[in-house]
Specification:
178 residues, mainly alpha, Vanadium-containing Chloroperoxidase, domain 1, 8 helices, 0% strand
Length: 178
């Protein structure tokens, strides 16, 4: 475990060297887009309103619900990983310091949940969502809010939950009366 933590801090410390006022603003925009999954919730609601994208919106919304229960309410409280800025308390995170546990990254998990659910219905739009998700995940590292392994595991969990949600919605739509 110590080698993983050393790797995590080496990546985070290296990222501190690329900070600039312009990049701070750009990364802050992306990190705030991921707050409470608000971007993804909004898009789910938009997709639900249009018949052509309704299943995609349902899968995206379901993936976010799964993320809250599995990641935020279960995994974070089982693992209880302290955030990197708490361990290295001399770091200025620039953005708001969350008080919840670090593992896995909720911003990353919700982003990849939604992106995967969308990708299962519309590959082009899914790829756009994945690009935004990747920057959101990176922003969490940039600001020293999460360890790289938090972000990687959050992305992996998100892909699994998003694919599961898409499978459930497609399965339900296939057996539901028209």
């Amino acid at each position: 475990m110590e080698s993983i933590t050393n790797f995590d801090f080496s990546v985070l410390d290296a990222l501190q060297k690329i900070h600039s006022p312009v990049l701070n603003v750009i990364m802050a925009v992306f990190t705030y887009l991921g707050d409470a999954g608000i971007l993804w919730i909004f898009l789910s609601l938009v997709f639900l309103r249009v018949k052509k994208t309704r299943q995609m919106g349902a899968a995206g919304g379901l993936s976010l619900v799964l993320e809250v229960f599995i990641s935020e309410l279960m995994i974070k409280h089982l693992v209880r990983r302290t955030r990197p800025f708490v361990v290295h308390d001399w770091i200025d995170t620039i953005v708001h310091k969350p008080s919840s546990y670090s593992f896995p990254s909720g911003h990353t998990c919700t982003s990849f949940c939604f992106s995967t659910a969308v990708f299962c219905f519309n590959r082009k739009l899914g790829l756009i969502c994945y690009a935004v998700s990747a920057v959101i995940g990176f922003s969490r590292l940039y600001f020293y809010i999460h360890y790289p392994t938090d972000v990687l595991c959050g992305a992996l969990e998100g892909v699994i939950l998003g694919a599961t949600a898409a499978f459930i919605v497609k399965r339900y739509a296939a057996v539901a009366p028209a």
